[in-house]
Amino acid sequence: MLQVAHRNQNRGKGQKAPDYETARLCGACHFSIDNGKDLSKLERRELMHRAIVQTHSILIQSGTLALV
Questions:
Q1: How high is the mean pLDDT of the chain?
Q2: CB atoms within 10 A of CB 3
């Protein structure tokens, strides 16, 4: 099952990023990026950015997200 993961860079506890700064991730990847102790902060940030770009690509290809 996929989850919506918000980019949490420059956010305080309880604050969520806007919807366009989200990625669809499995639960394990979501946990790893948000709380993973095996990854550095930079690695988690890079993975999240990549996941957001991939999510946007999927949504654009499906016609769900349009470029204007």
A1: 89
A2: 14
